Amino acid sequence: MSGGALHVHQATVGELQTAASTVLAPLAVTAPRALTSTGVEAGAFRADIDAAAVGRAAVARIRGSGHLVERSARAISSTDPELLKITLHRSPEPAAADQGGTQSRAHSGDFVVFDMTRPYRLAVADGCDVMAVGISRTELGRHADTVAARAARRLPADSGAQAVLATFLQGLGSHLDELAGPAQAHAGDALVALLLAAFTETEPGRMDTATELVDRIRVYVLANLSDPSLCVDSVAAAHGISARQLHRLFRHTGIPFAAWLRGERLARIRRDLLDPAQDGRTTAAVAARWGLHDPRHLARALKSQYGTTARDLRRER
After folding, report:
1. CA–CA distance from 67 to each of 29, 81, 199, 205 (Å)?
2. What's the whole-model pTM score?
3. How is 83-100 classified by DSSP, letter by letter?
4. I want to staple 17 with a disulfide (CB 3.0 to 4.6 A). Which of 29, 56, 187, 229 is the partner?
């Protein structure tokens, strides 16, 4: 999802389907027709929808009448983004989740994950209050498979990282209109970090050592992004492995180390260029803060990554 926030009050079923398909991927939304004893429809469907991009994730809150959301095999296309959908349920009645033969009933305060590359069904009752996050598998890196493996299984949000994530999402749902520019980017970073904390908890001794090493390397690199000498050789040496081993580790994450490093630097440079508080600093100074000291390289990299220039980014605000 890109652009500004989306708000639809008293939406029809069709409007909810259009909004959900726009924010995430093609979905079918239907609602049961409750009839009175005289055969007249008991109540009109209604739903309030609030949605916005938060960093590189899409966040939506849906409140209102009960409905069924389906992602059918026919609706799935090879051109669709590979998204994971994480839902937080605050409805008084449980929701029914079904994906790949796994079924569960999500009660108020439960998370449920759906892999949007596969068919699924989610039925919510009247009075629904659901927060939904759509996030690319790429954003979660190697952890994407760990999160996807929880598809259609309820995860209570009553303690630990799950409770922190739930509180954070509820706050987002109430303040989507107030996030823009650097604030939105920072909130997006926090959202990804909390998702990983909540959904990748592993029992001691059960952590994949390769995954653990990649995580340690990422933490090290992010703590040293301002160092212009940061490269494959220096990072590998700092962790007692060869450059070849480092390349192999990151190849399994789906993105080469150099590309990941460049992307992290560019994301922070872009964030600072969009921040009015950084107006007193030159573009070169902003880039140098994140380890890039070649203005020509920066210009090409920003154009390639975001299709824009540093000057245009500062004009966008």
Report:
1. 7, 24, 26, 42
2. 0.64
3. EEEEEEE--SS-EEEEET
4. 29
